[in-house]
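Figure 6 in text form: structure in, sequence out.
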């Protein structure tokens, strides 16, 4: 019998935050139609190439950090807004916390996104970014940092994400319970692939609590280890 989950860590893009508006702003900045950017995104995702390549293919010589600096100077910062958080996030996190689970968020993101999440009112117990840690998913060291930051054994942790490669496969290899959330561009492109190693497959965070091993059979704060 699987051990009850005592902590849940969320990926960020397309898991906690809808990136659609942000990508539309990049299309506008590069003077291309959003449909062109979606097509480029789907192409690089299918190829297994880093998603920033989708911008380079539309704008040869594109440099992400320089473009972000240019946007800041023009008063059009590349940032998330409160309205980008999916509506199912807050009630889900509240249910987990009410059941005594630790919660966190960690993804391939900048420290700016860490600050955004810290100010979001979601009350995560830990927030980690690839930029601050100096390592990106799916590198195993990233998940070692996640486990250490939460302070629970890997088999008592669930990691929720929208990608089969960076999230499901990597979290499973780290000994965590991987939950596959089918939404966003990556889930769309790989809709024909099964998440064989996932503990559960969900289509909304409304479904998450009941998908967690042992949820509902625990009360009070997480066990001390």
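Output sequence:
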């Amino acid at each position: 019998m699987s051990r009850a989950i005592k902590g849940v860590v969320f990926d960020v893009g397309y898991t906690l935050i809808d990136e659609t508006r942000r990508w539309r702003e990049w299309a506008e900045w590069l003077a291309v139609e959003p449909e062109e950017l979606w097509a480029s995104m789907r192409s690089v995702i299918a190829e297994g190439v880093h998603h920033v390549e989708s911008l380079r293919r539309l704008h040869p010589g594109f440099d992400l950090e320089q473009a972000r600096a240019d946007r800041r100077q023009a008063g059009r910062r590349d940032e998330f807004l409160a309205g980008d958080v999916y509506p199912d996030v807050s009630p889900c996190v509240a249910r987990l916390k009410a059941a005594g689970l630790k919660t966190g968020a960690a993804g391939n993101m900048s420290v700016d996104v860490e600050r955004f999440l810290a100010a979001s009112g979601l009350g995560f117990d830990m927030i980690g970014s690839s930029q601050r840690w100096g390592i990106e998913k799916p590198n195993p060291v990233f998940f070692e940092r996640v486990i250490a930051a939460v302070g629970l054994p890997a088999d008592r942790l669930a990691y929720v994400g929208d990608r089969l490669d960076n999230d499901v496969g990597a979290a499973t290899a780290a000994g965590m319970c991987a939950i596959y959330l089918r939404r966003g561009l990556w889930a769309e492109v790989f809709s024909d692939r099964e998440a064989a190693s996932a503990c559960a497959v969900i289509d909304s965070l409304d479904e998450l609590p009941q998908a967690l091993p042992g949820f509902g059979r625990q009360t009070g704060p997480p066990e001390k280890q």
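Caption detail: The longest helix spans residues 34-47.
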